[in-house]
Every structure is written in C-alpha cells, then in structure tokens.
Amino acid sequence: MIKNDSKSMHKPQSFSENELISRCKSGEIKFQEKLYKHFYGYAMGVGMRYLQNKDDVLEVVNDSFIKVFKAISFYDENQPFKAWLRRIIVNTSIDHRRRNLKHMNQEDIDEAIYIGKAPEAVENINAKDILKLLNYLPEIQKTVFNLYEIDGYSHDEIGNMLSIPVSSSRVYLSRAKEKLRKHWNHQEGSYAR
Prior knowledge:
The protein is an all-alpha fold and 193 residues long. It is built from ten helices and no strands. Helix 2 crosses helix 3, helix 3 packs across helix 4 and helix 3 crosses helix 5.
C-alpha cells in the first residue's frame, strides 16, 4: 500500500547556487527570480553599507540584478558568484551616489593634511560595531571607508570610482576612522556610567 504523504508532494524544490546560475545562463526567467530571492538579503546588506535610504538601496539592488542577468553569460564560474555580485552592487551604488552627488554635503578637503596613522581604537572594535557606527559618518566618508576597509579597493581605485583625487580618498578614510573612534569612545563612556 502506497501512502499519500501530502507534505512530500508539495515540498518546494531547492536548487544549488551553481544550478541557479546555470539555469539563468540558459535564459530561464523563473530561475532569475529564484536567484534574485536567494541573494536578495545579501545584496541589500551590501547596498546598505553605501546608501542610507532603503528605497535607494532597493533601487540599486534591482538595477544590480538587471545588470547581473544581462551579463550572466559572461560570468566565469571559476570565480565566486558572491564576489562578482558584490562588485556589481558596489559599482551600482557608487554610480547611484555619483548621479546624486549634487545632493551630498561634501567637505572641501583639497587643502587638508593626510593623517598617516589610523586610530588604534577603531582597529580593535568588531565588524558589527563598526557597521552601526558607520551611520554617524558623512556619506562620502562612509563610502570611502566601505570601499577601502570592507571591500578592499585601493585609494587609486576609489579615486577613479568617485572622481576624487587619491589624496582626498586617504583624507576621507582618515577622517572616517577618527570620527568612528570618537563615537566609539563616546559610546564606551556611556556604557561605563
């Protein structure tokens, strides 16, 4: 006698990341949706590091996935997909910021002095604390900090991406670290009370 197990009959089929990517490469629309849903949380997390407005992040994530699906046939499966996707999201975020640059409040730092040593306090806090503290930074400093410290871009690359001098990238990073240190020290002081 065969048992009719309704739970097993309606269990959604799961696919590996490689299979999702392969099916997207073959142009299967329903697998594009599955890939989008699979990486949505990750993509939003990357976008939130660059943009504060959730609607802007959603726009960037959607634009990024459109780029992914247009270029997925060129994706090299020997490379990690998440790294490829992250680069697309970061670049799309930077492009979004560049389009909206006129709305950003930027400091004039052409004459600023580069501070060569990073504050030690910032180096000793964990990633979760840093991500919370990033919200205290001006947009340009937050972007440079993310690009350099989290995503590993060089100051030359950051300068090209943001259309700023390399020295400005260094100054923004230094100022970001200093502000993070001050906010961290302030928070640590309030916990001690």
